[in-house]
Amino acid sequence: MRPDVRFGQRASGSCSVPLNSIVVDSQPLKTQHFQQWATHKKSDPKACALEAKLSGIKLDQPLAANAESRFTSDVPFTVCGRARKDGKREHVDGSAMLLASDAQGRPKTVRVRAQIVKFDREAYEIGPAFTEGWLAKVQSLSSIVAHEGRVELSLFATAKQP
């Protein structure tokens, strides 16, 4: 994960999560299908990422050590470099907390927990209909991975002061 976050009363930055670190419903088969569909079986999942651009996300209170700050925002995401076909953003709800540290001179760490409640994988052209090969055709007959679902994000970011 490569987060780059600036914080204060608002948060801005970017975050990139390698596709091979995303797990679908704690099931290896669903995870494998999602990776094949996201890459269209044309690249290695390690080379593909889920990325978000954060811009001026308002926190309900400034970040402070061991105090939770809530946020809600519409955030642009890309999957393997593809934005949503309809140009919309994902609605994200979550919290951020500055973790206390005794170390002098070390960058501050922020814990972020967030969720996208209605993530539509087909809006990013993720699915058997967008993937070549006989296996994708067989997969299209089954609903092993839902068209819409919840994405839960849990990450630690090194924060930069504004």
Summarize the structure.
The protein is mainly beta and 162 residues long. The protein has two helices and eight strands.
Q: What is the domain total for the residues?
A: 1
Q: What is the number of beta strands?
A: 8
Report the portion of residues in β strands. Answer: 35-45%
Biggest sheet character: 8 strands, mixed
CATH hierarchy: architecture: Beta Barrel
Assign the structural class, choosing from mainly alpha, mainly beta, alpha/beta, alpha+beta, or little secondary structure.
mainly beta
The number of helices is 2
* Overall helicity: 10-25%
CA gyration radius, whole angstroms: 17 Å
Q: CATH class, anyone?
A: Mainly Beta
- The shape is elongated
- Which strand order do you get reading across the main beta sheet? 4-6-7-8-1-2-3-5
Q: Whole-number average pLDDT?
A: 84
User: What is CATH's topology name?
Assistant: Lipocalin
Rounded to the nearest angstrom, the distance between the terminal CA atoms is 21 Å
Structural notes for this entry:
This protein is mostly beta strands. The protein has one domain: Lipocalin (Beta Barrel), CATH 2.40.128. Helix content is 11%, strand content 42%. It contains 2 helices and 8 strands. It has an 8-stranded mixed β-sheet with strand order 4-6-7-8-1-2-3-5, with no helix packed on it. The longest helix is centred in the first third of the chain and has 12 residues, at 28-39. It is elongated, with a radius of gyration of 17 Å.
Secondary-structure blueprint:
Blueprint: E1 4-6, E2 10-18, H1 28-39, E3 49-58, E4 68-75, E5 77-79, E6 90-98, E7 108-120, H2 134-139, E8 148-160
Parallel strand pairs: 1-8
Antiparallel strand pairs: 1-2, 2-3, 3-5, 4-6, 6-7, 7-8
